[in-house]
Amino acid sequence: MLSIDNLHASVEDKTIIKGLNLEVKPGEVHAIMGPNGAGKSTLGYVLSGREGYEVNEGAATLNGKDLLDLEVEERAREGLFLAFQYPVEIPGVSNMEFLKESVNALREHRGEEPLTAAEFLKKAKAACKQVNLPLDFLKRGVNEGFSGGEKKRNEIMQMILLEPSLCILDESDSGLDVDALQVVADGVNSQRDGQRSFIVVTHYQRLLDYIKPDFVHILADGKIVKSGDASLALEVEKSGYAFLGKAYEEADA
Amino acid sequence: MSEQIEQALSKQYEAGFYSEIESDTFENGLDESIIRRISAMKNEPEWMLEWRLKAYHSWLEMEEPDWAHVDYPKVDYQAISYYSSPKSMKDKPKSLDEVDPELLDVYNKLGIPLHEQEMLAGVAVDAVFDSVSVVTTFREKLHEAGVIFCPISEAIQKYPELVKKYIGSVVPRTDNYFAALNSAVFTDGSFVYIPKGVRCPMELSTYFRINEQNTGQFERTLIVADEGSHVSYLEGCTAPQRDENQLHAAVVELVALDKANIKYSTVQNWYPGDENGKGGIYNFVTKRGICHNDAKISWTQVETGSAVTWKYPSCVLKGDNSVGEFYSVALTRGRQQADTGTKMIHLGKNTRSTIISKGISAGKSNNAYRGLVQMGPKSDGARNFTQCDSLLIGDQCGAHTFPYIESRNPSAIVEHEATTSKVSDDQLFLAQQRGLDAEKAVSMIVNGFCKEVFKELPMEFAVEAGKLLEISLEGSVG
């Protein structure tokens, strides 16, 4: 599925990722935790190809394809989905037309016929229901005037619609109350089918009570410094990142 | 992203073809004898010729305005031909079957079939080719409703009383430099009269095409909506791709009598010049409407073409409770320059106006909104709302806003809102991460930005306008 080998990446000449290795197999859920500034969000941007995020060394492949060689939209069409921490608004463009274009761009890439308006609407309605979004969200501008929680649920709704093979969730729990967290987690869990893989980037263990990870990795200073199973997250919850040394303790305070 | 955008705007202008059509074209230059010849070609009555000559003499005294935020070499008015007509039009074809098939073919290529059975149902078209109207469709059907829709040259012959009464009544001969020039040399255009209480049974539309080299197009449109009548009118325009600049100086006058309603939409796609600013149309146009009591005039324009645009469709709200609206999308790219906006002149009581202007700049273009809202001393309770938004694509273009507000009535309310935004990297990244390519993403963002204006266009044309915008943006991201 996803294979990252000795990845080094920088933003504005500042090296953020410093030799990261990660193997994600089909159906697995990997949680990435770590203190602020460790490079958690950067990893998602680098993998999805955001401009300004330079790869200086290393390799990353998705289903055998060289990710780093592809444009942003090509990576998306290959099945990589990034759920944004702060989704941006696109005023005047309805969620519906945006998602229909998006779904059909992916279908075209797979050599499938585009969905008709009716077919699309049916799927979109089902996806909305799954994350508890009222149907009128489809008519509203993309993220336009959505609350923080609505934006997050909207991201999960998109993920359900686009049926990616690898989902990267960038702090999809931040700013959510317990009920909203449950909705987001249920949305994600419904998509776990033994084939689809997830990278769950989070600051808090809390989300992992709802989305059970197969592996937990601690990212610090651009590298994975510790890996384990779900119990590692609990350990972090209890004693913080003290084991990383003093500097991180303060950064996380 | 900026780097991608900086890359050349490589899109081809789709209407840029030239058609080999034999034509009678006047030699270049302008003097009294040219005006007499134009008038004679059109077989005009004496009063019309006199009117033209008066305009010409005023024009000679006037100076070309230079206050607009545009920069172009001065036009040599002696290097232009003021009349060009396809040869086949000499003996006035009586019906569509007699129209030169090559001419019809030009319009077919532009996606405007003139055979009525092939046309969009419910849209009547007047096709103006260089200086003459070649065909007007659905005339009989309109005639049944009492609606007059014909070339203005024909109206001068057939309905001289109407023309004489209203021509120059909204845009006087001496209104401005280009209006005076137009009044002297106008060659064709459309005339519309909607009788009292009649709701025009179909959309009316005029399609302007400049074909010949070194010719100017000076059309004149006059629409009179009698009391309580309704009409929706649309104009479209294209021209071949040429290295030299061509002048288009039109005048449009709208008269909305008591309780009448005129909706005037423009999809302007004159050749904009190449990416280095070579060639393209100078679009210097005066458009104005007058509203009597309880009347309404609504201007909607989608402007994507022309090298230089100087255009301010305006409303004189003379009657009490009259309403003026202006909805505009102006897109500039390459080296295009646009200085466009509106004037809302509130004279009557409880007059209302709305201005929604969306300017989009890409490439190395400059896009200016210039608007005047004037509240006269008697405009008790008048209201205006102006919203003026600019969207920048890339970092080498300019957006400018010049709002003028003059209020001489303490009870009048004027609101002005303005925003400037960029197509942000974040928006592009979100769209691309969802599988859309950059071009599709930009055109979607721009379409969203323009939505408030597009929804004012007649259905068929809203789709066309969206597509036009998409084509115009092609290549604006690398």
Automatic annotation (TrEMBL), chain A:
ABC transporter domain boundaries: 2-246
Superkingdom of the source species: Bacteria
Stated family: Belongs to the ABC transporter superfamily. Ycf16 family.
Lineage, opening ranks: Bacteria, Pseudomonadati, Pseudomonadota, Gammaproteobacteria, Alteromonadales
InterPro entries named among the record's database cross-references: AAA+_ATPase (IPR003593), ABC_transporter-like_ATP-bd (IPR003439), FeS-cluster_ATPase_SufC (IPR010230), P-loop_NTPase (IPR027417)
Entries under PANTHER family matching the protein: ABC TRANSPORTER I FAMILY MEMBER 6, CHLOROPLASTIC (PTHR43204)
Organism: Alteromonas oceani
CDD domains, sorted: ABC_FeS_Assembly
Name this protein carries in UniProt: Fe-S cluster assembly ATPase SufC
Coiled-coil annotated spans: none
Alphabetized PROSITE patterns for the sequence: ABC_TRANSPORTER_2
UniProt KW GTP-binding keyword: no
Entry keywords, A to Z: ATP-binding, Nucleotide-binding
Keyword Nucleotide-binding: yes
